[in-house]
Structure to design on (458 residues):
């Protein structure tokens, strides 16, 4: 656990006691801070009961008198649509409202870091960067919105590097973020219920660049309009900028051309690797992820040869286009991490003859933007609270089945794919929705899919 020595003899309020909040309360208490902690969920409060130095107090009643800072769970709103009462009081008092990542950065100043954000592809890119850097023997700690909470990481030291995936929620609570390399992947509509509109979402994401200095680099994938606007603003501001694309050639940047990863930073094109050969990175979106990861490692000074070798040994990311099994010519793919329509579009554009399992907690806009791929879908099996809404949005686009539960959908898709006996068919879990109606998170949803597939195909 990261030691928070700077917190000794100070008083912190911790609101939200999930895993990251619990670790923050514990780390602060171990550092000698006085910690007031609260969560409105009884089971969550049990996470900190018995920890010496942590006192359970209903912060909305007790207030924040004589508190030095509020540590807020990223899931708790502090601006739009309405600030949580505790966050609102902190702002009235002028108290810092920060998260666990800010605590880690204050404890580990001057560490090299690569920070990745974007709507889709963050986890794959983060895992790939961590793999590439680790493959050359560099000490790497990977965390944030992927893997371990940041306070559970180890100090990589001044010769190592932190590789952090950060969401817009986390960036809003990390005012001192100043990455050595900041990677911006893409923007599509997401989390509108939290940020109000696309502009608010983009502003939250742009915090990744706010404190970068002359020795740092901004990497921006310019394959969508909002990202291109961000790149242009960074260039005008004088930031060290590397543009990346998997759609077009970019002299002075990194791009993908017919599957080849190209380094054109010197305005001359040098082939790095043929990404078509990497089974763990299927689809155009993963070529984008690989290009961004390569740009980050090149910016850190590593050679094209080292990067090519590292890409070949990358095993891929669980729950993102993860091939679970192939049975009687039917592939079973776990894409549970596709929690919005833009992520699912990447999967639908890659496969043909799809038995599609879709649904959960719908995001803004639902799945209407997926209509261009409905002709690839043999049947859609609708699950979760969005089942009826998605049925209406699909309309006559493809055959639909109201399955409601994941288990029923998998069994139906398995039986019908085998009965149809079409070579190249794919049973695809790509929900285009969050998991919270039926599962604690997308990992649990994906794990259930994999377990049921193994049961059916064993």
């Amino acid at each position: 656990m990261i030691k928070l020595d700077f917190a000794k003899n100070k008083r912190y309020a911790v609101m939200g006691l999930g895993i990251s909040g619990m670790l923050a309360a514990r780390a602060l208490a171990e550092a000698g801070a006085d910690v007031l902690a609260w969560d409105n969920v009884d089971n969550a409060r049990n996470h900190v009961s018995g920890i010496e130095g942590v006192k359970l107090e209903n912060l909305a009643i007790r207030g924040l008198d004589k508190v030095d800072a509020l540590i807020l769970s990223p899931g708790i709103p502090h601006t739009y649509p309405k600030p949580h009462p505790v966050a609102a009081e902190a702002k009235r008092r002028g108290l810092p409202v920060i998260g666990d990542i800010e605590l880690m950065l204050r404890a580990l100043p001057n560490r090299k870091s690569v920070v990745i954000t974007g709507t889709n592809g963050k986890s794959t890119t983060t895992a790939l960067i961590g793999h590439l850097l680790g493959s050359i023997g560099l000490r790497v700690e990977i965390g944030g919105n992927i893997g371990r909470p940041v306070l559970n990481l180890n100090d990589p030291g001044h010769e190592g590097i932190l590789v952090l995936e950060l969401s817009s929620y986390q960036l809003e609570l990390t005012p001192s973020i100043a990455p050595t390399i900041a990677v911006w992947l893409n923007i599509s509509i997401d989390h509108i219920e939290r940020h109000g509109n696309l502009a608010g979402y983009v502003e939250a994401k742009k915090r990744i660049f706010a404190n970068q200095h002359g020795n740092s680099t901004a990497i921006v994938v310019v394959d969508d309009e909002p990202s291109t606007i961000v790149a242009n603003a960074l260039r005008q501001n004088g930031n060290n900028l590397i543009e990346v694309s998997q759609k077009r050639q970019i002299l002075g940047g990194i791009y993908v051309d017919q599957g080849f990863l190209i380094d054109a930073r010197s305005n001359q094109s040098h082939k790095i690797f043929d990404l078509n050969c990497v089974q763990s990175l299927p689809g155009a979106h993963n070529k984008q992820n690989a290009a961004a990861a390569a740009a980050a490692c090149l910016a850190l000074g590593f050679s094209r040869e080292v990067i090519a070798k590292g890409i070949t040994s990358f095993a891929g990311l669980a729950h993102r286009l993860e091939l679970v099994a192939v049975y009687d010519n039917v592939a079973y793919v776990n894409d549970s991490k596709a929690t919005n329509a833009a992520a699912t579009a990447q999967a639908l554009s890659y496969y043909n003859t799809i038995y599609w399992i879709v649904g959960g907690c719908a995001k803004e806009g639902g799945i209407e933007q997926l209509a261009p791929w409905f002709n690839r879908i043999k049947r859609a099996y609708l699950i979760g609270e969005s089942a009826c809404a998605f049925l209406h949005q699909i309309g006559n686009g493809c055959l639909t089945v109201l399955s409601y539960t994941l288990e029923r959908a998998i069994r139906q898709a398995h039986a019908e794919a085998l009965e149809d006996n079409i070579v190249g068919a794919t049973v695809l879990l790509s929900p285009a929705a969050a998991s919270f109606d039926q599962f604690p998170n997308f990992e649990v949803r994906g794990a259930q899919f994999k377990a049921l597939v193994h049961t059916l195909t064993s």
User: Anything to note?
Assistant: Residues 284-299 form the longest helix (16 residues). The two ends are 41 Å apart (CA to CA). The chain is about 35% helix and 20% strand.
